Prior knowledge:
There is one protein chain. This protein has 2 helices and no strands. The protein has helices at 2-77, 82-89. It starts with a helix and ends in a 13-residue tail after the last helix.
Amino acid sequence: DMTACASANVAAQHAEACVDDGVHLGTLCAYVCYHSIDFEAALSRWAIGGTAILSLLVLFCGMRILQQCAATFRHHSSQTSSIAMLGRELGLDDNFDTESDE
């Protein structure tokens, strides 16, 4: 009789924990659904401006990278032929003269 009472007590505590978890989950879902409308409105307000700023940053960085590539290309083209320079820039012809033969 004592074991039945103990197992009933454990089952009641487990049921209470499940109900608490369900209530907390329901509260959390209601909170998220209620505030997601505000988040979507804020996101739509910032979407165009954020996209424009990100596009400008990508464009600016892309231009800087292309300038760096053009400067490297001009530097190497003045020293070697165009074919050798392209091979070196593509990594096809590394020609490391600084390696020692030990």
